[in-house]
Amino acid sequence: MAAKLADSHLRDNSSSQTVDQILRSLPTTPGQLCPHIMEQINKQTEGDAALGRKVLSELLIAQEPMTTARLLDAVAGDAGWEATSDQIQIDKRVDRCVQCSKGLVMLVACDDGNTVRFVHYSVRNYLEAHGGL
After folding, report:
1. pLDDT tens, 19-44?
2. β-pairing verdict for 113-118 and 66-67
3. Which of 87, 43, 5, 131 is CA-nearest to residue 72?
4. pTM surpassing 0.70?
């Protein structure tokens, strides 16, 4: 998570800030990282920010591991996606869901298909402690 946040900060900040200053200012614990990453999610275009928040919400309320198919079904309406059986299109949509979540979720390969999960239990804890999104 910290590496993605560092990369984002380096790309988003002006050249007057040195790399060293940016790296020293980054949070070092998961509890400190989550608010900064949520800020990055919300700085995206409105569509990407909404998709990122929807993905996190769906994972937060999930009672069992979230398959990629179930996640796509859950976000399709909000994202304006029509049903498709094209595997390339499905893969692109899954990738977009993960990317819009700015490193808070990851894709995990399983025997019975892929699942999407929080990258660390502290992400769920943070979202629960802060009333979700």
Report:
1. 777 777 777 776 678 888 999 999 99
2. antiparallel
3. 87
4. yes
